[in-house]
Amino acid sequence: MQGYIDIHCHLTGDEYAPLGGVDGVLALARENGVERIVCSGFDLASSKTAQELAGRYNEVYFCVGYHPSELNKYQDGDLEQIRMLCQDKKCIAVGEIGLDYHFEDNPPKDMQRDMFIRQLQLAYDVHLPVVIHSRDAAQDTLELLQAHKTLLGNGGLMHCYSYSPEMTAAFSALGLSFSFGGPCTFKNAHKVVESIARIEKTRLLSETDCPYLTPVPHRGEFPNHPSMVRFAVAKMAEIKQIDEIEMKNQIRENAKRLFPRLHEK
Ligand SMILES: [Zn+2]
User: Which of 80, 96, 207, 215 is deepest in the core (most CB within 10 A)?
Assistant: First the structure.
């Protein structure tokens, strides 16, 4: 069975209790043909919990890193511990890392940029791709990545891509791929739909970013969970005017190429 891939989600919180916890949502995901689920860390504690989940469940893989909004928690030595977690064969990438200027009280931009570069360097050192979170920081993200292009040598993913369709060319030129989740199914998603239309289908991946961003037709329900990834895949197939199964298989191939560890046992 060639299943769906949820390349980015968060299973480390307690939001899933109404669905029977992580056990419950993973049972649902199996019933709905989800083959691989990547649980993303966003600080040291969640990166460790993501590793534990990957140890417990066959289909769960993980990535490790410090999200830009979480940097106020950062302590000396955390990056060394994250580096250790990268040795786990089910750790497929360093992420989510990046820049987030959305809220005024987010960590200072200098600190965000510094930690982004340090984590790009870490990924390069351990031969892993990166998963990038970037919100309201398109130009800074692009310039920083262009200036450190060599550190993207193992590839990278712009997760939950939300910038202008025009910017996709610039990020593509850096060799990056793009993943989309619930927002591409939303009624007002013109920019996202146009981006998907422009991006080569070999660079598209699917995600839920659960527990948030539940797709249509379940928009508004909480929590979102990995089974819902099929709605984003169906939407991408519609935009690319290809069969849904073809889209699913293409995404599976794309994921395998970008994240080699995702298909190792
Ligand atoms: Zn996330």
Answer: 96
Diameter over CA atoms, the chain: 49
Global pTM value: 0.97
Q: What is the pLDDT of residues 47-78, one digit of tens each?
A: 999 999 999 999 999 999 999 999 999 999 99
Q: Which domains, from first to last, does the chain contain?
A: 4-263 (3.20.20.140)
C-alpha distances out from residue 55 to 67, 220, 264, 265, Å: 22, 32, 14, 12
What's the gap in Å between 68 CA and the centre of ligand 1?
11
155 Ramachandran zone, left/alpha/beta (phi>0; psi -120 to 50):
left
- The rounded Å distance from CA 40 to ligand 1 centre is 6
Write down the residue that tokens 């043909």 correspond to: 33
